[in-house]
Write a structure and sequence with these properties.
Layout: H1 19-34, H2 44-64
Helix pairs in contact: 1-2
Length: about 80
């Protein structure tokens, strides 16, 4: 798929993924799928909504994953 999207879960990332990490991955995904690096003004709103939706889904996924052998998360 997109080689610049990195794995955001331990142990690939030594710490918990930040909002910035998640948003960067979402942006790369939407760019790849849409074929636009920077959308035209008339597509900007749809592009931005897609990035936010992917970022939200990614954050939810990462929050729900249980990684065996990783230290327990602190609440």
């Amino acid at each position: 798929m997109c080689r610049s999207i990195k794995t955001l879960r331990p142990p690939a990332l030594p710490e918990e993924a930040t909002e910035e990490d998640i948003r960067a991955a979402a942006l790369q995904y939407v760019r790849k799928v849409s074929g636009f690096r920077a959308p035209a003004a008339h597509n900007r709103e749809a592009f931005d909504r897609a990035v936010q939706a992917v970022a939200d889904a990614t954050a939810e996924l990462l929050g729900d994953l249980e990684v065996r052998g990783a230290p327990a998360r602190r609440a």
